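Late entry, written up from scratch paper. The run itself happened at the end of the previous shift, but nothing got recorded in the book at the time, so transcribing now.
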Amino acid sequence: MVQLTGWNRAALGVVVLGAAMAVSAKEKSFAEDVAFLKKHTNATVLKGEGGAAVVVIPQYQCRVMTSTADAASGEGAGWINYKLIQTGKTVPHINVFGGEDRFWLGPEGGQFSIFFKNLSVFDLAHWQTPAPIDTDAYKVVNKTTDSITCSHQFRLVNYSGSLFQINVNRQVKVMSMQDARTALGIGDMPGIKYVGFQTKNTVTNVGSTMWDKLSGMLSIWILGMYKPSDQTTVIAPYNTAGSGNIVNDTYFGKVPANRLKVQDGLVLFSGDGKMRTKIGLPPSRAKDVVGSYDASRNMLTIVKYTFDASASDYVNSMWELQDNPFGGDVVNSYNDGPPSPGAKPLGPFYELETSSPAMNLGPGGSHTHYSQTFHFSGPREELDKISKKVLGAELDMVATTFK
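Output as recorded:
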C-alpha cells in the first residue's frame, strides 16, 4: 500500500493553494526575503559572524524561514511561499508557508494520529494539521542578538481519544564557525562562507496522565524546506552494520532508479523539485547526520540532530490502522514535484526531516530534540573535505550521480 504521509495529500488535489501560489522562478536575495517577511510577519533577524544571519518568525511557531552567510548581498537557503504569506490569510488542512526548520509533532496517521479526529476516515477531507504546529503564534520569552526562545502551551487529542497536554519550548541560536567545527569534528575551512544555527526543541507533558503505547506517544518532527535545482542531491549516510531495509522508498510509490542510488554506505536522492517522491531511513540504519549538495550554487548543507541509536520506537505516520504504530522512520527527505500530470508543484522545494523517538513521558516529563543546520559554500576542494569527513561522500561522485 502507498503510504499517505507528508506531501502525498497534494496528489489528490486538496492542498491546491500552495501549488497555485508557487514562488516565481526569479530568486530573491536574503535582503529581499527579510524586507518581505518583516512587512507581513513579526520576523526577527538573528546575527552571526561575518555577515551570517538567520530569520525566525515567532507567529509561525518560532520557525526558521531562511539563513545566509552574507546578509548584505547573498541569497537565503530556505524556500519561502511569498504568494501565500502576502495574502495574510490561512487555508484549510495546511498552510505551506515554507521555512528551513519548522517544528511539528507526529504521528500523522494511524490509531494514534494527531492529524485525524477520533473514528474519522483516513482521507484528505478529514486530514487537518493541528493549529499548534500550523497557525498558532508562539510567545517570545527571551531574545538576544544571536538567539530567540519561544514557548507555547496547548492540548491535542489523538485518533484514539487520548488527551495530551503539552508545553513546547523552542530556542533558535546562531552557531559560530567554531561551533560548527566542534559539532562536526572538522578543522579549519579556508575560503569557506558559512552560516549555521541550532534549534533546541523541548516538549513537556504538563498533564496528569502517562504517554505510553496504550494511549499513544508523540514525537518531535523537524522539517526543513530548501530551494531545489537540477544539480541538487540529498546525501543520507546509513549504518552498513544495521539490519533490515536500508531505505523506505515507497511513500508515494517506488522511487525510480534514476532518482535514488544506494551505494557504499550512502543513500543518494534527487532534490531537483521535479518529481514528488520521498524516502526514509529506519532507526537500525540511520546516522545522526543528513545533508545535500547543490552543485549549481556550490552549497553543501548538513543537518545534524540528536539520535539515540538504542531507541527503537519511532511513530508511524501511515494513513491506516497500523499493525506496528511505533515502527516509523528517523530521517526523511521529500522532493517536491507536480502532484499529478500537468499540475503545478507546491513549491517546488526539497526537504530534510528528522524525528525524535516516540516520547514515553509521565506527568512533568520532558524530551529535547536538537537540530543543527549548516550551510557551506566556497572552494570545491574545501567543501569536499567537509563532505567526506561528515557525510562520507565525495562531491565529484555526488554531483554526477543523476546526470
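The helical segments are 17-20, 30-40, 82-87, 177-184, 380-390, 395-400.
(Scratch paper discarded after transcription.)
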